[in-house]
Structure formats: C-alpha cells, structure tokens
Amino acid sequence: FPIDSGSIVASSLLDPNGTTPLLMTSNNLYHDGAVTAKLGHIVIDAANRQHKRIALIGVGGLSSGVFRQGIDITQDKLHSDDHDKANRKLLDLIAAGNKAAVDSYLSDYAATAKGDMGMKHLAWIFGGLGDHYKGADIIAYGPCYGSGAAVIDFKI
Predict the structure, then answer these.
(1) How far apart are CA 102 and CA 6, in angstroms?
(2) What is the pLDDT of residue 116?
(3) What are the start-end ranges of the H helices in the chain?
(4) Would you say 96 and 152 are in contact if contact means Cβ atoms under 8 Å apart?
(5) How many H-runs (helices) and E-runs (strands) does the chain carry?
(6) pLDDT band with cut points at 50, 70 and 90 for residue 59
(7) Is the backbone of residue 83 left (phi > 0), alpha (psi -120 to 50) or beta?
(8) CA dist 72 to 40, 135, 146, Å?
(9) Are 111 and 27 in contact (CB under 8 A)?
(10) What pLDDT is stored for residue 152 in this prediction?
(11) Is the model's pTM score more than 0.85?
(12) Which of 45, 53, 79, 97 is the most exposed place for a label (fewest CB within 10 A)?
C-alpha cells in the first residue's frame, strides 16, 4: 500500500533529521477497526519481545465536516455545533480512561460527526495500549478547516 502524504508529513515532524527508526502503517480502506487494533497490538508485542522502547503514534482527525471552499484561516471554526459537541464528548470519554464507554459511544459519534476514516487511528492506539490504557491528557482541541482536530497524550 503506498505511503500517504499524512505519513510523510508526520514522520518529518516527529523526526526531522531522519535519525530515528520508524515503522509506519497506513490506515487503508482494506480492513476495519478490529484488524487495525490487532495490528497495533502486534507492533507493541514485537517491540516488547525485542526489548525496544517505542512510541505508538496515531494520526487522524475527529469530525469530518471539512469546508470545501476557501476560508480565511484566522476565522476557522468547527463545521457545526453538533460536530463540536460530539468531538468534545468523545475527548472527555478518552480522557476519563473508560474504554468501554468510548467503544459504546463510537457508533453514535460516527452517526453525528462522521469521524475520520472510521476512527481507525483510535483503534490503532487502543490496540497497542491494550489493558494498559489509563486515560489521556487532551493537549489541544480545535478546528482544522472545519473538521475537528486534537492532540492527545494517552496515559499508560
């Protein structure tokens, strides 16, 4: 599967000098969240067996209500109040550390906010964290050309 522009941008931001070994997977259309979670688990398991210290990073958006016309970026806002409320609820659940509550809310979230790529980037993180997920710090949340975006630091 070809590496997408998001992978290139993320790797350049995370390792601008290209000195850190990176393993990248692309969130493609050919599998679902369950397979993505399994892949996250496999990566962590392999690193643990090799006694490697790693960071698991997922890159993706929240709500998908992107503006399709040019906007003044200084006036950027969420596409709708419903998307904002859904994003905030999801982020609150993630921060609280209750994976069952997050999983339970995801279908309602998808219906309201139409999360980016079915939120498989979240499945990737949860798959990697497994039973070690203890909540998260929401570092930032806001609009990204109308869609929702957040930076989240997951706790283990």
Answers:
(1) 25
(2) 86
(3) 5-14, 33-49, 81-96, 99-113, 120-129
(4) no
(5) 5, 2
(6) confident
(7) alpha
(8) 38, 35, 11
(9) no
(10) 96
(11) yes
(12) 53
Q: Write out the two tokens for 140.
A: 């930032």
DSSP state letter for 46: H
- Contact present, 103 and 93 (Cβ < 8 Å): no
Question: 138 CB contacts (<8 Å, ≥6 apart)?
Answer: 91, 94, 95, 150, 151, 152
Can you read off the two tokens belonging to residue 45?
């398991």
CB 65 within 8 A of CB 79: yes
- Using DSSP's 3-state secondary structure scheme, residue 92 falls into helix
d(CA 3, CA 123): 19
Pairwise CA distance, residues 139 & 143, whole Å? 14
Long-range contacts of 113-116 (CB under 8 A, 24+ apart): 113/62, 113/63, 113/64, 113/65, 113/82, 113/83, 113/86, 113/87, 113/148, 114/63, 114/64, 114/65, 115/61, 115/62, 115/63, 115/64, 116/60, 116/61, 116/62, 116/63, 116/64, 116/147
The interaxial angle of helices 120-129 and 33-49, nearest 10 deg, is 40
Tell me the one-letter amino acid at 29. Answer: L
What residues contact residue 21 under an 8 Å CB cut-off, 6+ apart? none
User: Cα separations (Å) of 93 from 45, 53, 87, 88?
Assistant: 26, 28, 10, 9
